[in-house]
Amino acid sequence: MKKVRKAVIPVAGLGTRFLPATKAIPKEMLTIVDRPTIQYIVEEVVASGIEEVILITSAGKSAIENHFDYNYELDTILRQKNKHELREELARTSGLIDVVSVRQKEPLGLGHAIWMARKVIGDEPFLVLLGDDLVRSRIPCCRQMIDLYEKVNESIVAIQRVPMDQTHQYGIVEGEKTDFERTVKVKRMVEKPAPGTSNSDMAIIGRYLLMPEIFEALGKTTPGHGGEIQLTDALQSLADQRGMYAYEFKGKRYDAGDKLGYLKAIIDIALDHPTLGEPLRDHLKSVCDGKNCLQ
């Protein structure tokens, strides 16, 4: 069994849901309290034991690469001003992990973005994390998936239960229970099923652990709606070929690519902040309507 050492993070999207804020700033660089969204994603893979991150980028995304690079001028200024804590924090960020960038020259979908990483990944299993899906958990979500992989030696998609009237917004998994906790064997995957066409509430979120055979499946996948190569089609092919599991992770997921999800992430993370938490809690109490005040 090969070790999971690499993670792919597609960051080539335009971030249209956050325009005009993302006209000149990558959506992955929007700040949640004191760090950009992408840093939370990278910190999760680092805490999970991953050794290398592959960013799938596009034009205008250099700010992401720069964020994880060393800035000599800034470091010099901070040193001269004796801002040692900030220097240490920036040094920690630039030293988090080795980062490789691969350019996606055309916006041909998530499946195509992952396929672009094939030469860097080679014949190893690897993780995929979407850059606007945050998961807060005691054990990192990716670590939970790696632990399961070491038992099943197959691809895994992370899932969460959603209300049935929301299943049309997600890729949905249908499957059978297994002997592994919170795990089902995938039988069918449906991308945004029409109401009434699936009785499953297991929605795929932005975490995948994939065997390298996914690249062959992606290479054979014909473009779908909008000329994009859909990842779900290739996942179904891989599940049919050698099997796949769906894991209901432990933790709380935020869709930071959605305005409301982004705000929820800011509030929850800020409430746990060592210096901001209490003042923010007091402020929220002062502006509540008297019915839903924080306790």
UniProtKB/TrEMBL annotation:
Domain Nucleotidyl transferase per the UniProt entry, residue ranges:
6-267
Its catalytic activity?
alpha-D-glucose 1-phosphate + UTP + H(+) = UDP-alpha-D-glucose + diphosphate
Q: Which UniProt keywords apply?
A: Nucleotidyltransferase, Transferase
Origin: domain of life = Bacteria
4Fe-4S recorded as keyword: no
TM segments?
none
Enzyme's top EC category? transferase
GO function terms (MF aspect): UTP:glucose-1-phosphate uridylyltransferase activity
Q: Respond yes or no to whether keyword NAD is given for this record.
A: no
Per the similarity annotation, which family is this? Belongs to the UDPGP type 2 family.
Q: What is this protein called?
A: UTP--glucose-1-phosphate uridylyltransferase
> Which species is this UniProt entry from?
Candidatus Electrothrix marina
